């Protein structure tokens, strides 16, 4: 069969010594004008991968491929053997039909192979790279179903809002890509606001903001910070803010007064009557003060946000560390979820709420 296969398909080349794996082109149809219509075999490698995964070397002689006279006979025999193998491997019954792969290749050719970042070995999970009008890079993950395009795929991305995709049996990957671009454009103003905050202030958390993060904790001064939650739908509106630090505890700020011609960052500075320290004027190490109990800055995802209110002290602590410290002291007392005690550094009164994971 090997000599017949190569003779009928001169653009086919064996890539192993056993001559069981080939690369190149195979003829699938001869037109009336005697022009060969070919498929590139590399696009068909999934058949080999699935075949090797489905069948073990212990198949009996009735399940082994025989020496077929031509390619058509070979494909028919391959189909029969795969049907037998699938019956013995129920977990492989979800393998998509050949039309699935043809549809996938056709849709990717329309969309553009340059947009494909990666695809899994099952040919069902695609990662597409997408660039919005501001030049930001995004990744769209598409999980296709075995009955694609009859079934709607699962789509996900790093967004602050749920990704809602409209799908019909006639929809394509190019249409998903277009819908995703529209979603990105609707969030351009939101990301512009956060990018300005990230560039011009020192962000204490999240340590590495993602495109889905809506919160920023901004350093104001030594042991003083503000937590800001930006609304993705109304990014320029003044958000609810939480001030953290010595003599502030955790106070909330609401304000409807804002200058519509100014950015969110400038409006925040006007409301607070301060100017945020920036990377151009301050080092971040000035704000990264370690916990006075465990001597580390980050305790898992927790930062030292419990501060002694004594102006002469102002030592920060992790909420968990301070709670465990005070709870172990005989002089401390607890009322409901609040523990009252003395600061480990200056012995002045200090309180802390029970961490939420303790409830």
Automatic annotation (TrEMBL):
Pfam families named among the record's database cross-references: FANCL_C, FANCL_d1, FANCL_d2, FANCL_d3
Gene3D superfamilies: RWD domain-like (3.10.110.20), Ubiquitin Conjugating Enzyme (3.10.110.10), Zinc/RING finger domain, C3HC4 (zinc finger) (3.30.40.10)
Keywords carried by this UniProt record: Metal-binding, Zinc, Zinc-finger
GO molecular function: ubiquitin protein ligase activity; zinc ion binding
GO biological process, one term: interstrand cross-link repair
Alphabetized PROSITE patterns for the sequence: ZF_RING_2 (PS50089)
Cited SMART domains: FANCL_C
Residues annotated as domain RING-type: 291-347
Gene Ontology cellular-component annotations: Fanconi anaemia nuclear complex
InterPro entries listed in its UniProt record: Fancl (IPR026848), FANCL_C (IPR026850), FANCL_d2 (IPR043898), FANCL_d3 (IPR044037), FANCL_d3_sf (IPR043003), FancL_WD-rpt_cont_dom (IPR019162), UBQ-conjugating_enzyme/RWD (IPR016135), Znf_RING (IPR001841)
PANTHER family: E3 UBIQUITIN-PROTEIN LIGASE FANCL, UBIQUITIN LIGASE PROTEIN PHF9 FANCONI ANEMIA GROUP L PROTEIN
Protein name: RING-type domain-containing protein
Upper classification of the organism: Eukaryota, Metazoa, Chordata, Craniata, Vertebrata
